[in-house]
Amino acid sequence: MTSMKQKKKEEQEKKAMEEALMDIMEDINLEEQKSESAFIKKLNLLRAEFKTEEPFTTTDILPKEEPIISMRSVAIKFVDIDSFLAKEKIETPFAEEFWDFYYENKQISDPRKYLGGIATIREKTLGLLGEVSEYVLNPDLIDINHAFNEKMQSGKLYYVGDTHGSIVDTDRCIRFFVKQIKEAETNNEEIKIIFLGDYVDRNKMDIHNLLYILTFATKYLKYVRILRGNHEETTVNMRYGFWHSINKYLPNLYLFNDFEYFFMRLPLVHAVHYQSESMAEPRVIVSLHGGIPIYDKSFTEMPEIPNIIEGLDLIDSIHSNIDEMDDLSQQILWNDPVDDLPPEMLFLPSKRGIGFNFGKKVFDEWMNVNKADRLIRGHEVFLEGFRNFFNDRLFSVFSSSKYVFRRLESKILEFDFSKPWEKNWTYLTILKDL
Ligand SMILES: [Mn+2]
Fold first, then answer.
1. What is the pLDDT of residues 135-160, one digit of tens each?
2. Contact partners, residue 143, CB within 8 Å, separation at least 6
């Protein structure tokens, strides 16, 4: 009986939700949206809206300055989180409320569950996005080349790959990290946690997954960094689920725009410059979502390589849409490494239809130019949740145990600087080790 009642209640809720959606979307034909051409139409409509509509509360989350188009030889600006925290008065009531909802009350089982109700959804979500923009993505912390650079002398460094709405994995990771952070604070040790992008799409819990990660990053501002993945982008979101999730669970036409506006501001690159007291030179661990960007593509000759750590010649990633970004930004989000290239080839066009597959020679040269020791990235699905390339200098990690129809061993990557360099990395299985 109870389950019958429950089912009926759910149906009623669903109906009310659908009606609300119809009200909000008015003249947009829902059947039409299912076909691809209608998606394109809708997309163009959204693009037009981005440009012409008076931003309707998005003012707070948009960058005030013009997108950065060109720069040369920019000195590295390091994140100085301690003086930032000392100088800023941090107030994050929305993050606190979301934290209470996800972490304290464990409200993560039902995608329709949301704080408040439909009337407050947009307000609260925008509140959180505003807090993330103001603190986590503050221009004082992010370098002019749209990267985070920071120093570490010791402690532990963690990387989380694509989570794609797999909130079970995310929840497990966050609970583990909270413990690690508390331990580090007690022992006065350093700790950093970097999320490599791809928070949404592929899973009905994707909105919650994203909001949970943003909440964690705001709550633990001192330790957590978030990057943009190729799924924090409009055309991909229209196609792979996020757009549907919003329509289904949070029926608000403008909320999709708000998220897309927000995604534009996520940085593409993070670099840890690790140097203990006994080291003469720092070792640089670069992370990004997809792969290393290069200038020209003859496939058989060594390309010209940009130094993205000391300053990009050209980066214009502040767009909601991949087509409008510059070539280097697109490649950072989409490129993949490849182990077995024909001997005469240095890289290949990607089967994904955007970006490239790069081989060891180009990778080694890129690392030279960028004075980097290791590269950490996500973007690729491996059943074992990870793969190392190029003599353990490139680490690829995937952190969603449920991906489309596959089950896999999702992992996170840990560096423990108390161990010798060559042996300081370990992959942890999220649903087993954490
Ligand atoms: Mn990806």
1. 998 888 887 556 788 999 999 999 99
2. 74, 76, 77, 149
pLDDT score of 390: 97
Question: What is the CA(404)–ligand 1 centre distance, in A?
Answer: 14
Q: Is position 111 within any domain?
A: yes
Q: Does a structural domain hold residue 69?
A: yes
Provide the 8-state DSSP code for 272.
E
- The total domain count for the chain is 1
**Residue in 403, 394, 396, 326 with CA at minimum distance from that of residue 364:** 394
| Ion ligand 1 nearby residues (CB, 5 A) | 198, 229-230, 379
> pLDDT above 90 covers what percent of the chain?
56
For 353, residues 6+ apart whose C-beta sits below 8 A from its C-beta are none
State which residues form the domain around 68: 53-434
Q: What is the domain-level CATH number for residue 219?
A: 3.60.21.10
pTM as predicted: 0.84
> What's the CA-to-centroid distance between 30 and ligand 1, angstroms?
28
Mean pLDDT on 169-185: 98
192, pLDDT greater than 50: yes
Question: 333: closest CA among 320, 344, 342?
Answer: 320
Res 128: pLDDT? 94
In the reported structure, the alpha carbon of residue 164 is separated from the centroid of ligand 1 by a whole-number distance in angstroms of: 9
**Can you spell out the DSSP letters for 146-183?**
SEEEEEESSSEEEEE-B-TT-HHHHHHHHHHHHHHHHH
CB atoms within 10 A of CB 158: 22
DSSP state letter for 137? T
Instruction: Specify the pLDDT at position 78.
Output: 84
Please check whether residue 411 lies inside any domain of the structure: yes
Q: Taking 80 as the threshold, does the pLDDT of residue 9 lie above it?
A: no
**C-alpha dihedral over 160, 228, 286, 76, to 10 degrees?**
-140
For the chain, the residue count is: 434
At 213-255, the pLDDT tens digits run: 999 999 999 999 999 999 999 999 999 999 989 888 876 767 8
Cα of 410 vs centre of ligand 1, distance in Å, is: 15
Residue 15 lies in a domain: no
Q: How many angstroms does the Cα of residue 381 sit away from the middle of ligand 1? A: 9
Torsion of the alpha carbons at 364, 370, 375 and 379, rounded to the nearest 10:
-100
